């Protein structure tokens, strides 16, 4: 056996500074991922808790659990505007708070679209968003009296196909707004 054969059996040695640099980089990446996950979890929870509780209060304000003003099935515009405003303001506040921590996505569609701009894996953010949305619904259910009347369903006058296209259109507007905002922010930093 030659010396080279024995050297092949020995563990390899790396320079100490190189080893510490890799450990620091790995530790920094893990810490960044955990921070982003927790930011997305807490931000989504806060966003949806505020939006769900305000929606629940709006629907229970007149002891009706629907959006119609009377038996003529015309929508109550005040309730619709209040609920829309609540979701918009809640989203704006929480994106402002958590944008630098996690990106402030709070929506799986936005997380998937943002994957095109950065190399970060969107799966942890999507898991955080789903867990936070369930926790927010449970929190509002426990916090406010009565059953939770927040539900996602189409009106009888809207077909499933029309509802799908409406949802796709509105979600694409949200995604486009966020992506353009992020792009403008990146350009200003250069």
From TrEMBL:
Topology relative to the membrane: Multi-pass membrane protein
Region feature Disordered, mapped onto this chain: 1-26
Main location: membrane
Keyword list, A-Z: Membrane, Transmembrane, Transmembrane helix, Transport
Keyword Transport: yes
Parts of the chain that traverse the membrane: 34-52, 80-103, 124-144, 164-182
Localization in the cell: Membrane
Classification via Pfam families: MIP
Family: Belongs to the MIP/aquaporin (TC 1.A.8) family.
Protein name: Aquaporin-like protein
Gene source species: Decorospora gaudefroyi
